[in-house]
Amino acid sequence: MQDALAQKMYKTSFAQAGQDGQAVINQRVKDELRRNTYDTATGNITISTERAAVVRTLAAHYTSLFGEQYAMTPGTLRNPQDLQALPAFFFWSAWAAATDRPEDTQLSYTSNWPHEPLVNNVPTTGNGIWSIASVILLIAGVAVMIAFHSTHQDEGDPTPPRTDPLFDLKPTPSMRATVPIRNIRITARTTCCGQSPDGFRKWITWIFAPCTSHA
């Protein structure tokens, strides 16, 4: 848009317009981008001829970029409606980031974010206050957690028993009732597999593993 205004006003490029010319152009760009021309009745916005030309140029660039040209896989967006919607999304995102809110000058819909001095998108006083307050609250929260943990010592490890509780285990009636079933299982395993369990590991395996025939 700077070059478009430079061509209209000085018949040259923005880089060749000189400091005074560039200052005038930058002010025109800032005024154009920050001015809110949204019509709530129709849902339309009004932009200048120069800005409209720039929008069309950028729309054609992004349509080509995501449709068929360099940097992207050819046909990234194959639906023509998607190719038209993408530049529109870019435009409305930029519009909301730079345009003043209704009845509120120098404050965009995104609270002057992202930072861009060209359109006077600079942090507001409120942004600075809340940023400082959030950092202070974060530090205070960390300090409270440290103080709490320093005054509340963790409990020590539990003292292990002197003897294994399983050694003193007394079988209950339900445990005794399973003895015949276990004996049947061992006998069945021995009969099925043709060998007797030899050792604790094989004994456990033969009891709980499914029976398979051996060659």
What can you see in these coordinates?
This protein has 215 residues and is mainly alpha-helical. It has three domains: 2-120, no CATH class; 123-151; 173-208. Helices cover 56% and strands 3% of the residues. The chain contains eight helices and two strands. The chain has a two-stranded antiparallel ribbon with strand order 1-2. α1 crosses α2 and α3 (49-67) crosses α4 (80-98). It is elongated. It starts with a helix and ends in a 7-residue tail after the last helix. The model is unreliable at 211-215 (pLDDT under 50).
Element layout with pairings:
Blueprint: H1 2-10, H2 18-34, H3 49-67, H4 80-98, E1 100-101, E2 104-108, H5 125-151, H6 173-177, H7 179-193, H8 200-208
Antiparallel strand pairs: 1-2
Helix pairs in contact: 1-2, 3-4
Output the radius of gyration: 39 Å
Poorly predicted sequence stretches spanning 5 or more consecutive residues: 211-215
Q: In percent, how helical is the residue content?
A: 55-70%
**Shape annotation:** elongated
Helix-strand topology string: HHHHEEHHHH
Protein structure class: mainly alpha
Number of domains: 3
Number of strands: 2
Q: pLDDT average, as an integer?
A: 83
What characterizes the major β-sheet? Answer: 2 strands, antiparallel
List the quaternary state of the chains. single chain
Strand content: under 5%
The strand order across the widest sheet is 1-2
What is the number of helical segments per DSSP (H or I, 4+ residues)? 8
Cα-to-Cα separation, first versus last residue: 87 Å
